[in-house]
Amino acid sequence: MNFSRFKFIIIVILLAISLAGFTFWANLYVGIMALLLALLMIYSHFKQGNIVPALMALRNGNIPAAEQALASIKRPDYLSKRYQGYYYFASGLVDFYHKRIAQGCENLEKALTFGLKNKTELSITHLNIAQGAYMQKDYEKSRKHMELCQAQNPTDLHIKQRLEELAKYLDQNQNQSNS
Description:
By secondary structure, this protein is mostly helical. It has 2 domains: 1-48; 49-178, Tetratricopeptide repeat domain (Serine Threonine Protein Phosphatase 5, Tetratricopeptide repeat, Alpha Horseshoe), CATH 1.25.40.10. The chain contains 9 helices and no strands. Helix 6 packs antiparallel against helix 7 (119-135). The mean pLDDT is 87.
């Protein structure tokens, strides 16, 4: 069962409890509390969507589950600014996985405009944009994002290795263009 169906079931149960509290039990307190909880769940659904399940699926390497979670978000502009950033972050990573480099770079750049909080996520974003720019032969943009990634001081060994490889390729390209 996916996360949004689980939320929907809880919302329906809370609305039923609220209705029962107002009518059958004549308990105003129970009815109001259940109604407020249901409204809070509805609000959180529109402000957070399925971003957390999508990010967890990406972390576990389950790209189809991440795509499904992202596809269930019909209006990303309804998400809060922070979750919009993570929506575009996850979308960009999925695009890179499917070799849609230009769209992946565009989504990751949108994620940067909304702001990502974690340094590792910022490093991953800048590194992927740098690699995408390198693949598109935009070496200045690639070098700029590589330097921005290095400025985050990534601690992840995989990110460091990919940075070293990219720096080597950029230096080789610069040496060839100078010759």
